Amino acid sequence: MTETVSDNRAALLDKIAALDAEHARAVAGGGERSVARHHARGKLMPRERIELLVDEGSAFLELSPLAGWGSDFTVGASVVTGIGVIEGVECVITANDPSVKGGASNPWTVKKIFRASQIAEENGLPTVSLVESGGADLPTQKEIFIPGGKLFRDITRSSADKRPTIALVFGNSTAGGAYVPGMSDYTVMVKEQAKVFLGGPPLVKMATGEESDDESLGGAEMHARTSGLADYLAEDELDALRIGRRIVARLNWRKARPEPAPSSYAEPERDPEGLLDLIPSDLKVPFDPREVIAHLVDGVSPSGGGANGTVFDEFKPLYGTSLVTGWARIHGHPVGILANAQGVLFSEDAQKATQFVQLANQSDTPLLFLHNTTGYMVGKDYEQGGIIKHGAMMINAISNSTVPHLTVILGASYGAGNYGMNGRAYDPRFLFTWPSAKSAVMGPAQLAGVLEIVAEQSAASKGEPFDAEGFAAIKQVVEAQVEEQSLPHFLSGMLYDDGVIDPRDTRTVLGICLSVIDNAPYAGTDRFGVFRP
């Protein structure tokens, strides 16, 4: 192993350790005292509930675990969201964290649940909500109240779309939170724990003068026997989870596409551990994405030959060499891959990408985008050669493509290259980031340098001397700010991705995502916007 490879591995392992520490903050929720208090009451934490709900031995793909990172709110946004398999059915699962302000929803909670709802809608998945929430975080109600109504709209639209919604209520579900069990197709309430009402006893007394208690106003037994809001009355939390599993088992759920048989594909020819050696700590240093691809895609199938007989069929390898394109399979699922090779995208790369996207749509093949790009090439010769129209052609094709898109940001993802490679603004079904990644309008040094040139030109136009020494301090601040805002923790906290993942988990994560998208039918298109010649 060379010293450079050793350095790559060490740098990435440091970033993974930092990522693990941030994930631990999210798992800690409201802290040890709060968690201990809930356990003492016989209550489980959200991830404990999820672990008992999903099929034994199956993976739970947690989404947006760092939501709210860098804000004034607890990392994780007081809710856990993700995709889990229940009785063989892939479901979107949301679980309030009662250890964080009683599970109250803050602005990041709402955004995180919006994203989970979008994933459920696009991929045609049922939703299971593990409810224990005191409603809105009142100090931030102005940021929650108006957009928050979309949460309830999404539940009812899901039902109308024949995507079942199931609510398991473990504790308080008050005020706006009461509408989650109220609007779900199936509602299970835990005896002597669940309390569902629009207004609790103090609010009712203030509004009407009526004296009441929790049970008569909104207890689980009352809703099961009197109001009819509860479809099932559970004896305890474990019983509620058991009932939830039985509800899913009776949905008669069928995926739109058959699942590939495990015997039809093989593991990659390269050990996933080797991914840690590939990404330079300095993102200006290019790396070969073919090496990354070799660690992610299926190896030669046990049967050999046929569509599975080769690992990666590269398309147009001698043209547009800064972008690698080709066909492969991941866990038996066919996929077209676009991966940046040297960072910069040239006209030839954009034209190749456009053709490749059209071919994927012609064959109804999902697309996987692997980012390491500093953007489209600039300069007089490239402008005259049509870089803008060719870049626009690529973005046009990707914007109008109707096969599912998956995106992983490996290294740099700057400028319009982020758009052309199907960044968050282009609604990929899933987008994940490696700890080595950075994303911004441009690199910190370049951005600060541009500001310096503009300031120097402005001073010259006014006939004033330019204070280069004084601007150096400003430049340093700008670089530091852009560097911080380019980092994956910051971007994930803003929900610009679905999570920062360990590179070694990438194949597993992509396999889950490719399986999930097969729940709903999809087809490619032959309709694109106008391509300028």
Structural class category: alpha/beta
CATH class of the largest domain: Alpha Beta
CATH superfamily of the largest domain: 2-enoyl-CoA Hydratase, Chain A, domain 1
How large is the share of residues in beta strands?
15-25%
Low-confidence stretches: none
Strand count, sense and closure of the main sheet?
Answer: 8 strands, mixed
User: Given the structure, what is the number of helices?
Assistant: 19
The 3D shape can be described as globular
Oligomer: single chain
- The CATH topology of the largest domain is 2-enoyl-CoA Hydratase, Chain A, domain 1
Give the overall average pLDDT: 90
User: For the CA atoms, what is the radius of gyration?
Assistant: 26 Å
First-last Cα distance: 48 Å
- Helix percentage range: 40-55%
How many individual domains? 3
Assigned CATH architecture of the largest domain: Alpha-Beta Complex
Number of strands: 16
